[in-house]
Amino acid sequence: MNNPSINFILNKLLEQISTNKLFRYLLLFALGWGIVQVLAYFSTVIVIFTLAAVVAFLLNYPVQWMQRFLPHTVAVIIVFLLSLLILIGFTLTIGFAALSQGQQLLQQSPDFINFVISLLERLQTLLQQWNLQVDFSAIEEEIRNQALAGIAVGLGTAQRLLANLVDLILIAVVAFFMLLNGANLWNFFLKLFPEHLRSKITSSIQRNFLGFFWGRLILSVFFGVSTFIVFLILQVPYTLILATIAGVFDLIPGIGATLGISIVALIVLPQGIWVSIKVLVGCILLQQVEENLLMPRIMQGSLNINPVVMFFALLIGARVAGLLGVFLAVPVAGVIISLFEMNELKSEQ
């Protein structure tokens, strides 16, 4: 059934949209689609150079401090070599120990699956005693399938990390040369913007990226070390790998700590519900200390984003660039909000 008022409105809209405007919209859409395709084609190269830029950006802070006493090249070499030594020492000690515990944990994953299934069977029996007929067989089968898929993903991720050793070397080499000649590259990049915006762009990126990455790194180390101590006190098995999981997830802003705590509590569930509850309570208390005492001081003056906007940026970043997008989405959103002075999108302090 045709409605005259609807037809009238559609005709008016079509009259207002000229051919030139429609062509510009289509051209803009095609340009965006083309950029996405190019980024997808060169995704490996983009990831390598992006991670190298992040590493160079973080190491530039100690380089600038050492430049007060040493020449720029000497400062870069010393900071870079010290960083490599710290990374190698961490990998040979804590890294391999955590990897060994992770392998043992994966080997005992069938015990965890059987424990969850036994809980479902007990629940099913209890509900049947209350004359509630339920069948959890489909859920049990899905748990088995998802657990096997998760184990395969974990093993595949470890294999990919070892296989991508060449990419890690490339990231280190590119980061080193970015530290040496990063100023020239940055000045070339700033020429794409009007001169009156260049200083504002530089200060905004330094404040948001440097504050975010260093802040998240410090908070993640605190959360990982503190959970390690708590797990030792509670005599939880696989202490190192569980604390590593909690610390790594804490790098993700907003929901990362909650995800890490939930995963750790589920992993220790076969050790007993009471042990899992104690781990959950201990981690939540540490999370409150981190978010209410440490985070306001460490992240002060860096990011100032409304939580809703932050979660929206995380979802967009994950959709566009996966895990890399998750880590870059929040500081990028902070830079955009700061540059365009979108005060409505900032958090209330």
Task: Characterise this structure.
The relative contact order is 0.07. The chain is about 85% helix and about 0% strand. It starts with a helix and ends in a 10-residue tail after the last helix. The protein has about 350 residues and is an all-alpha fold.
Mean pLDDT: 75
Distance between the termini: 54 Å
Give the radius of gyration: 26 Å
Give the helix proportion (percent range): over 70%
Secondary-structure class: mainly alpha
Order of helices and strands: HHHHHHHHHHHH
Number of DSSP helical runs: 12
Oligomer: single chain
Described by the principal axes of the CA atoms, the overall outline is: globular
Q: What fraction strand?
A: under 5%
Unreliable segments of 5+ consecutive residues: none
Main sheet attributes: strand count, strand direction, barrel closure: none
Number of distinct beta strands: 0
Secondary structure blueprint with pairings:
Layout: H1 4-16, H2 19-41, H3 43-66, H4 72-107, H5 109-129, H6 137-163, H7 165-190, H8 195-234, H9 239-249, H10 256-267, H11 273-298, H12 307-339
Helix pairs in contact: 3-4, 3-7, 4-9, 5-6, 8-9, 8-11, 8-12, 9-10, 10-11
Key terms:
single chain, 349 residues, mainly alpha, 12 helices
What's this entry about, in short?
The chain has 349 residues and is an all-alpha fold. 84% of the residues lie in helices and 0% in strands.
